[in-house]
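Sequence in, structure out. Go.
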Amino acid sequence: MRIDIITCLPKLLESPFSDSILKRAQSKRLVEVHVHDLRQYAIDKHKRVDDYAYGGGAGMVLMVEPIVRCIRALQADREYDDIIYTSPDGELFTQPVANELSIKKNLLILCGHYKGVDERIREHFVTRELSIGNYVLSGGELAAAVISDAVIRLIPGVLSDETSALTDSFQDGLVAPPVYTRPAEFEGLKVPGVLLSGHEKNIEQWRFEQSVQRTQERRPGLLGDDKTN
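Output:
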């Protein structure tokens, strides 16, 4: 997989991709991540990529021309399965969306900034708009990193234990159950006995029941009627 990210603040994306799982995925050549500085496609010597909105109002808008220049330059080398725009009013990014994107070959993510991008970009170039939650960030860079992290970890070979991603929260519509590790007792606090029993079927049933209970308590909106049956 290859992920290209267009941003006017590329330094914000240096850290997320230079450590831990995302770094290892790139080192193992399971994914390529390329960050493109939108200012390299600016229309003047001052590297300006934003302007005031027609009609007035506070805030600046990313201009159409630098973005189109960048997109077309990237499209000259490859075809993208999706051109994603990070926006508060986009489709909510969920685990099923991450699963869907993880089987793509080439993704292009455009980071929103300021008051957003010229609408003509959204109408004629963007194929999918994603939001990571009902709040507003200073820019789309953190959202692009979140989307990339959630997608990359699903690529076969990225995680040392490939079954790990299959048991993450939201994969089955439930949050994950409680987990414990050694010691079995600490200051009188004990690990549930079923987890020490070695009885795989009972452990799986306990984990499912705990997931349902935790989802009911913490994220009831995720729980369908069939989950308790």
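Check: The chain has two domains: 2-152, 169-228. The longest helix spans residues 200-218.
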